[in-house]
Amino acid sequence: MSNIKMLDKKEETDGDIEVSWVDQQRINEFSKYNAKIDDLEDQYEKLKQEKEYLDDVSMELELADEDELVRYKVGDAFVHVTAPEAIEKVEKESEKLGLALEEVTQQVTTVQGKMEALKKELYAKFGNAINLEKE
Questions:
Q1: Where, if anywhere, are coiled coils annotated (predicted)?
Q2: What is the pLDDT of residue 36?
Q3: Model-level pTM greater than 0.70?
Q4: Residue 5: alpha-carbon gap to chain centroid
Q5: Is residue 128's pLDDT more than 60?
Q6: How far is 119 from 135, CA to CA, in rounded Å?
């Protein structure tokens, strides 16, 4: 099914809109921000999933005996540590991930603000001759 539709006469443009060098730079900047948003959203999802895994591990470790040794992954190796030590390490990692998630969220908000400002400028000049919406 095609999403092509005819424009109304009032929606049509002259087709002779001149794109200046500055306008092209703004369009390129918008495109870069759009790609950055996609990257940040992917990064956010990965961090969120990793935090969920750590939360699950933390719940499992709560059920372990205090004297029981558990394997804790450090880099590519596993080290035997007590359950309370493992819980402490997992909680620290979870806190770091929480901060990373907040940072990514702030970056997304900042980039979206810049995109909105560019979008207003570009739509003001080009109207319906330009499409800046994601599909």
A1: 30-57, 87-121
A2: 96
A3: yes
A4: 32
A5: yes
A6: 16
Note down the domain range covering 30.
Answer: 21-126
Number of domains in the chain: 1
Residue 3 covered by a domain: no
Q: What's the rounded Cα separation, in Å, for the pair 85 and 69?
A: 10
Cα dihedral 64, 65, 69, 74 sign: positive
Q: What is the pLDDT of residue 2?
A: 46
Distance separating alpha carbons of residues 115 and 21, to the nearest angstrom: 19
Give the CATH number, domain containing residue 49. 1.10.287.370
Tokens at residue 5, please?
């539709």
Q: How far apart are CA 98 and CA 112, in angstroms?
A: 21
